[in-house]
Amino acid sequence: MSVLRFKALDEALSRKPVDAQPRAGAISDFFGENVFNRKAMHNSLPENVYRQVVEAMEQGTKIDREIADNVASAMKAWAVTKGATHYTHWFQPLTGLTAEKHESFFDLKNGGTPIEKFEGDQLVQQEPDASSFPSGGIRNTFEARGYTAWDPTSPAFVIGRALCIPTIFVAYTGEALDYKTPLLKALNAVDKAAVGICKYFDKDISKVTATLGWEQEYFLIDSALYHARPDLALTGRTLFGQSSSKGQQLEDHYFGSIPERTMAFMRDFETEALKLGIPVKTRHNEVAPNQFECAPVFEDANLAVDHNQLLMDLMGKVAARHNFKVLLHEKPFAGINGSGKHCNWSLKTNTGINLLSPGRTPRKTLMFLTFFINTIKAVCDYSDLLRASIASAGNDHRLGANEAPPAIISVFIGSYLTEMLEEIEKRVQKKKMTEDEKAELKLDIGKIPMILLDNTDRNRTSPFAFTGDKFEFRALGASANCASAMIVLNTIVAKQLKNFEKEVDELTAGRMKRDEAIFKTLQKYIIESKKIRFDGNNYSEEWLKEAVKRGLSNIQSTPEALGAFVTEKNKKLYSEMEVMSEVELQARYEIEMSNYKLKLEIESRMISDLAINQVIPAAVNYQNSLIANASGLAELLTDKNKNLYEAQLKILEKISSHISAVLESIELMNEASQKANSLIGSNAKSTAYCHKVKPLFEKIRVHVDQLELLVDNSLWPLPKYRELLFSR
Ligand code: ADP
Ligand code: MG
Fold first, then answer.
1. Ligand 1 pocket, mutate which of 297, 344, 460, 469 (most atoms under 8 A from CB)
2. What is the mean pLDDT of residues 202-211?
3. For a Cys staple, 215 with which of 133, 295, 515, 526, CB 3.0–4.6 Å?
C-alpha cells in the first residue's frame, strides 16, 4: 500500500552528497564568463560600434540595423566559443516564469551549403507564437502574434548550448505582455522624475538608476520524497500533513551549519550563477528546517530582476544533479515559516551618490531627506498598489499569518529618524525661521550620518523598512517576479517626486527661497504621511487595532488586493507616468485573477484525488486489520475480559467519523467549485474560490491530519512532515 513512501525514504536516507564541481581559483577569475558583457563586447566589436552600443545601454538611444548586425555577428562568434549551437529570445511572460524558444544558428545557404547564421534581424526581434501565453484578453487566439524585442541593457548569456538574449514581449498591437516592458518604463519614469529633483542640489546629476538587492528564500527537499507527494509536485505545497513533533521550535536551524549535501548543491549552483554574472554573495540556513536563503550584491534593478528570474530557474536545474527539489512556494508546509523574497531598493545617481544614504554635508543630507520623505509619502498614498503587487494565492498563506510581514502596509524608519522628522515638522511650522533657527536645523541635519547607521535597529516585522541606506520591501512571496513590486514602487515614487517638484516650484514662483520651499513641502508630507509610519511590532494584536484607527487597510485575500490595479486613481497614475495603459492594466488584472482561481482549482482537485485515492483507502485498510483483530479477540471473549476489544472499537469509530467528515466536505467543496466555475467573469470566479471553496480545504485537512495520527504508520501513503523536513 505505501510502497512508494518507504521506497522514497530509503532512497533519500541512503543518498551520499554528490561531488560539487566548484571552479578553482578566485571568483573574480570566472565571474561573468558566460555573459556577453561589456568586456566581451569590447574585445569583439570595433571601437565605434562598441561605443554606440554602450550609449544605447546608458542613454536608451536607438541601435540602427547596421550596428545590430555587427553586434549579432560578434555575439554569435563569442557564443560559439562557449559551445552554443542555438539562440533564444529570453523573456518574462505573465506566467511568472521565463520563456524561451530555441532556434539553431545552423542554416542552409542556396545550394545547400551548411552555415551558422545569426544577424541583426534575429537579434533585435522575434515573433514567437504567443497564443498560449496569458494576455488577459488583449489578443484573440487568431491574432496570436507577439513580438520579442532585444533589451540591450541586460546582457546576453550562454546557458548549456543556447545563447539567451533578454527581451521584452509585446502584443502585435504594442501592448506589454510581460514584466520587463512596464518595468523599463517605470525605471525610466523614476529616472526622469528624480533627476528633476536632483537638480535642486547638484547640477552634475543627469541620470538616476533604481538599485535592487533581493534576498531569496527557498526549501530544499529530497527529490524521491518530493515525487512521493503529488501535492508538492503539482501545487508546490503540501495540502495535508500532520506537523512534525519537532519543527522549528528549537530555532536550531537558523544560521546553523549547512548540511553537506546541501552545501554541495549550493556550491554548484552558486558557481553556475557566478559564471552567468549573478553576483551571489550570502548563503545561510533560514528559520525553518531545510529552508535556506541566498542573496547577491545589489545591481541596477532591471538586471537584478533578470538575475533573480535566472537564478530561480538555475537552482531547479542544478538541484536535479543533487537529487533535490527546490521549493519556491510561499508556504510549502503548514505550521512552519514560509518563504519570502526581500527587495532592497534605493536610487543611485550617475555621480555615484546613493540618494537614500544620508550625506556628509547638510546639503547632501537635505537631498537625502527629500528622497526619503517622498518615498514614505508615495508608500502612504499608494499602499493599495504595493499590496496588490505582492498578492498571489501562495502569498495569501503568509501575509498576516503571524510570520511574514502582515497584510497591512506600513513603514519603519527607526527612532532617530522619527525624531528627526518630528523636529522638522515642528520647526518649519513657524512662518519664518530666524537665521539662528536655520543654522540650528542645518546642524541637526548634519548630524544624521554619524548616528544613523547605529540607530536603524532592525525591526524584522515591518513590511517596508528603512535599513540605513535603502528601503527593504519584505512582503514579496518567494516565487514572485521582483518586477511586479519594482514596477509599482518606482512608478509611485516617480509620481510623488513629480508632485514634489510641482509644489516646490509653485512656492518658489511665489518668491519663496528654494530651500525654504523644500522644507515647507517636506514638512507637509511628513504630516500627511504620518499614519503610514509604524515602528512597533507588526505582528501584534494592538497594531491590528491601531491600523484600523489610522484608516490603513488590512487586505487578506488576493482577489480583494488585485482590485487596486483597476481603480480610477491608479489607472490615471499609470497612464500619466506612461508605464501602462488602461488596457494593459485591465489585462494584468484579468490574468492575475484567473491565475489565482486556477491555482485554487488545481489545489481543490488535488485534495479530492489524494483524499479519495490515497488517504481513505489507507484508513479503510487499517480499519480492516482492526476489525480482524477485534473479531479475533471476540472469539476469546469470556465474562471476565469483556472489554478486551473496546479500545479497537473506539479507534474504528474515530476513523469512521473522520472518513465521513472528509467525504462530506469533499462533496461540498466540489459543489462549491462547480458553482464558482459557472459564474461569469474572473472577479466573480476568484472571489467565490476564495470565500466558498478555499475554506473547505482547511476543513478537509483537519480530518485527514487526524487520520494520519490514527492510522498505522506502515500503511500511511504520503511522506510525513518529519520525513520531508528532517531526512538528509
Ligand atoms: P539583511 O536584510 O539580511 O540584514 P543586508 O542588510 O546584509 O541583509 O543586505 C541585504 C541586501 O541589501 C543585499 O542583497 C544587498 O545587496 C542589498 N543592498 C545593499 N545596499 C543596497 C542599495 N543601495 N540598493 C539596493 N540594495 C542594496
Ligand atoms: Mg532582508
1. 344
2. 96
3. 295
81 against 539, higher pLDDT: 81
What b/e string do you get for 252-273 counting C-beta neighbours within 10 Å, with b at 16 or more? ebeeeeeeebbebbbbbbbbbb
For residue 297 and ligand 1, the question of a CB distance below 6 A is answered with: yes
Taking the CA of residue 212 as reference, the ligand 1 atom at the shortest distance is 25
- Ligand 1 contacts CB of residue 608 (under 6 A): no
How far does the centroid of ligand 1 lie from the alpha carbon of residue 197, in Å?
Answer: 25
551 φ/ψ sector (left φ>0, alpha ψ -120 to 50, else beta): left
pLDDT digit string, tens, across residues 460-500: 889 999 998 999 999 999 999 999 999 999 999 999 999 99
**Considering only CA atoms, which residue is closest to atom 23 of ligand 1?**
346
Is 595-726 in the same CATH topology as 187-580? no
Residue nearest to atom 11 of ligand 1 (CA): 213
Nearest ligand to the CA atom of 280? 1
Ligand 1 neighbour 211 (Cβ under 6 A) = yes
Indicate which residue's Cα is closest to atom 14 of ligand 1: 213
411 C-alpha to ligand 2 centroid (Å): 15
Indicate whether 296 pLDDT > 90: yes
354 lines ligand 1 (CB under 6 A): yes
Q: Looking at residue 206, what is its pLDDT? A: 95
pLDDT tens by residue, 642-693: 677 888 899 999 999 999 999 999 999 999 999 999 999 999 999 999 999 9
Instruction: Determine contact, residues 632/645, Cβ cutoff 8 Å.
Output: no
pLDDT for 446 beyond 70: no
- Owner of C-alpha cell 530509503: 10
- pTM, two decimals, is 0.94
Measured between alpha carbons, how far is 41 from 492 in angstroms, rounded to an integer?
A: 35
pLDDT of residue 727: 72
pLDDT at 445: 57
* Residue 259 CA, ligand 2 centroid: distance in Å: 23
Is 355 a pocket residue for ligand 1 (Cβ < 6 Å)?
Answer: no
Q: What are the strands, taking DSSP E only, across 638-694?
A: none
Q: What is the mean pLDDT of the chain?
A: 90
User: Counting runs of H as helices and runs of E as strands, what totals does the chain give?
Assistant: 26, 17
* Ligand with an atom nearest the CA of residue 467: 1
Between CA 370 and CA 194 the distance in angstroms is 10
Angle between helix 582-610 and helix 694-710 axes, rounded to 10 deg: 30
Domain 187-580 fold is: Creatine Kinase; Chain A, domain 2 (3.30.590)
Name the CATH topology of 595-726.
Answer: Four Helix Bundle (Hemerythrin (Met), subunit A) (1.20.120)
Task: For residue range 556-603, list pLDDT tens digits in order.
Answer: 999 999 999 999 999 999 999 999 999 999 999 999 999 999 999 999
Reference 499, options 515, 482, 522, 533; nearest CA is 522
Atom nearest to 348 CA in ligand 1 = 23
Question: What is the spatial distance between Cα 24 and Cα 130, in angstroms, rounded to a whole number?
Answer: 42
Of all atoms in ligand 1, which is nearest to the CA of residue 357? 23
Does ligand 1 lie within 6 Å of residue 460's CB atom?
no
The residue ranges of every structural domain in the chain are 31-173, 187-580, 595-726
